[in-house]
Specification:
The complex is a heterodimer of chains A (about 270) and B (about 325). Chain A is an all-alpha fold and about 270 residues long. Helix content of chain A is about 75%, strand content about 0%. Chain A has one domain. Chain B folds into two domains: about 220 residues, P-loop containing nucleotide triphosphate hydrolases (Rossmann fold, 3-Layer(aba) Sandwich); about 70 residues, Alpha-Beta Plaits, CATH 3.30.70.860. The chains are: A mainly alpha (about 270), B alpha/beta (about 325). Chains A and B meet through α1 and α4 of A and α2, β6, α3 and α12 of B.
Chain lengths: ~270, ~325
């Protein structure tokens, strides 16, 4: 054999970890470059939550104003929209992976000597970075329409971290959907039956006691409400109670179940 | 390394809970330093075989050794010595040609300067230097294939898997790709390629196997396969189907191979084209059957299949349906 591979073999665990981190960053960068190259995708990702803010603030705000603590619906609404937006971002995780699969990129990646987790890790990391951008913009829009959070700056940052973590953990489930769907259109459609009940039968838009009685049990205890209550309490300076702990526990539980599912599906597909 | 770069023994791969056998006991040995062909129609199992040998899919049973490493037990080592260019030109359309190659370099764990230098060199070698910083979405089909092949070569792998590298390409792009493949083999690379084209296998492959429905139905060198097949196909056209039927009885005995009749057209695989044509015309003239068209052509994959299996390759519509249903099945297995 006259040719020799240009790459060196890596065997030590130290090297393995260093390369795994680099693989994840390489693929995250690739996914973020796509965001820059097709800016329309990002624009539409921002337009939707802005529409939600304006719609609920000005169309439903009057009707709902008196039902929220403090009487200012906009303060109740914006933290909820932020949570909803970061969760909706996970639809992009599903679509992106389904497209990579359709175009044969997953096949290529699987034949490379990279860390097995890197494709999913890079995708979810890039989607989190995108969520940060969207969070900043929606916060700005919120301020423009009268959002005035009374928690401190660091509470606001903590709230953002809680929701980014929660959305990150949930996005592994959407990664699974993206890899299990026959194409990207179906992947998108498959996310809806999951995402709509979780975000609308929750405390994102409406206080718990305003929901139908039969729905309150589910709405109060489901993870999205827990995360929303944690974020809202932190941002508005309310007592956080055990909401933050519950949000963190849910996040840990969700990723513990969904990540192995997604990784297993990654092993199977080509 | 042993004299074989790839050794597969009794590979079986089923899908859809065992209801569909994509590969049904395939064994092959690819000698180091040459092009080995996997010839077969759509749906014969070629892609599944390549995916197993490149560690993308695991076999249901059987054993495959690539460069001395077991694809199931040592997939990491296998991935360091192979390059894969899959059936779709798997390039990221949102990246430039250069960014695509550099990314693959990084994922092969090359250091940054090495990855960059190697990417530039490959782009130049493959006539893509001018388009290095253009998005891959703006590339033509031929350019995409070259970029895809370049991506498989970034780490300089001694073993290369190419799944239908020229399907869908125009004749010029196909010639370009063949020249690249020949250059790689001269440099010592072992290549396993799949193809639907007998012409391509004949041009590039020293040895080949023919796959049909997940089984090997023939193997040997290209010339062995061709001589078992006959060198030429004699195509005769008649004005009516009844003329064609009558003619079939008269001329079928010219060749030992089965004749194929389709409406007013008879195809006969023969060893010596001109002599067989003259003999056929003599017999038909004596019987007063008018021949409206006569042609001698190179045998196609369809002819190989007709001779080896007695059936033609599945028609295009059936193949497309099969591909789609397989894809749905593959994605649906949870």
């Amino acid at each position: 054999m006259t040719t020799t591979p240009l790459t060196m073999s890596t065997t030590t665990p130290h090297h393995a970890l260093r390369y795994a981190v680099r693989d994840v960053l390489t693929l995250a960068r690739r996914n973020l470059l796509a965001l820059i190259r097709i800016p329309t995708a990002l624009v539409f990702m921002i337009i939707q939550p802005v529409m939600f803010v304006l719609l609920f603030r000005y169309v439903f705000g009057g009707a709902l104003g008196s039902s929220v603590p403090g009487g200012l619906y906009v303060n109740y609404l914006v933290p909820g929209i932020l949570v909803q937006t970061t969760i909706f971002g996970a639809i992009g995780t599903a679509i992106g992976l389904a497209e990579d699969l359709q175009r044969g990129l997953i096949e290529r990646f699987k034949a490379l000597p990279m860390a097995r987790m890197a494709v999913l890790g890079g995708r979810t990391l890039a989607d989190t970075a995108r969520n940060v951008i969207v969070l900043l913009i929606i916060t700005g829009v919120g301020f423009l329409v009268g959002f005035r959070p009374h928690g401190g700056f660091f509470d606001y940052v903590a709230a953002c971290l809680v929701m980014l973590l929660f959305a990150y953990c949930l996005s592994w489930g959407f990664a699974y959907i993206g890899l299990a769907a026959p194409n990207s259109e179906t992947a998108q459609a498959m996310t809806f039956p999951l995402i709509f009940p979780l975000t609308f039968a929750s405390t994102i838009f409406i206080p718990l006691y305003k929901l139908p009685h039969w729905l309150q049990g589910f709405a109060n205890n489901q993870p999205v409400s827990q995360a929303t209550d944690a974020v809202r309490s932190l941002m508005l300076g309310y007592p956080v109670g055990n909401h933050v702990w519950m949000a963190l526990i849910w996040s840990a539980g969700i990723i513990a179940v969904l990540a192995p599912l997604a990784v297993n599906q990654f092993r199977k597909v080509a | 390394m042993s004299e074989f770069a790839v050794e597969a023994t009794d590979i079986v791969r089923t899908f859809n809970d065992g209801n569909f056998r994509a590969l049904d006991g395939v064994s092959l040995q690819v000698p180091t330093g040459q092009v080995f062909g996997l010839l077969g129609p759509n749906g014969s199992g070629k892609t599944t075989m390549v995916r197993i040998l490149s560690t993308v899919l695991s076999p249901t049973s059987g054993r495959a050794i690539v460069a001395g490493y077991d694809v199931v037990k040592q997939p990491g080592q296998v991935r360091r010595v192979i390059g894969l260019a899959g059936q779709f030109a798997a390039v990221d359309e949102n990246l430039t040609g250069f960014e695509n190659l550099r990314m693959v370099g990084f994922l092969n764990h090359m250091e940054k300067p090495t990855a960059i230098a190697r990417s530039r060199q490959l782009l130049a070698d493959f006539g893509l230097a001018e388009f290095a910083h253009k998005l891959a979405s703006t590339y033509s089909g031929g350019m995409r294939r070259r970029l895809d092949l370049a991506a498989a070569l970034v780490a300089g792998p001694p073993i290369l898997f190419l799944d239908e590298p020229t399907t869908g390409l125009d004749p010029q792009s196909r010639q370009d790709l063949w020249a690249i493949i020949e250059g790689l083999v001269e440099g010592g690379t072992t290549i396993l390629l799949t193809t639907q084209y007998l012409e391509e296998a004949d041009r590039l492959c020293k040895q080949l196997v023919v796959l049909d429905h997940g089984k090997i139905i023939a193997e040997g060198t290209s010339s062995q396969l061709k001589s078992s097949l006959g060198n030429t196909v004699l195509v005769l056209t008649f004005s009516t189907t009844s003329d064609a039927q009558r003619a079939l009885d008269l001329i079928a005995t010219i060749s030992s191979k089965p004749a194929n009749i389709d409406g007013t057209v008879i195809e006969l695989t023969v060893d010596k084209g001109p002599a067989a044509a003259a003999e056929a015309l003599r017999r038909l003239d004596t019987a007063d059957i008018i021949v409206t068209g006569l042609q001698l052509r190179e045998p196609s994959l369809d002819d190989v299949f007709l001779n080896l299996t007695g059936h033609k390759t599945d028609d295009e519509a059936a193949v497309v349906t099969e591909k789609i249903s397989r894809r749905v099945r593959r994605r649906a297995q949870v």
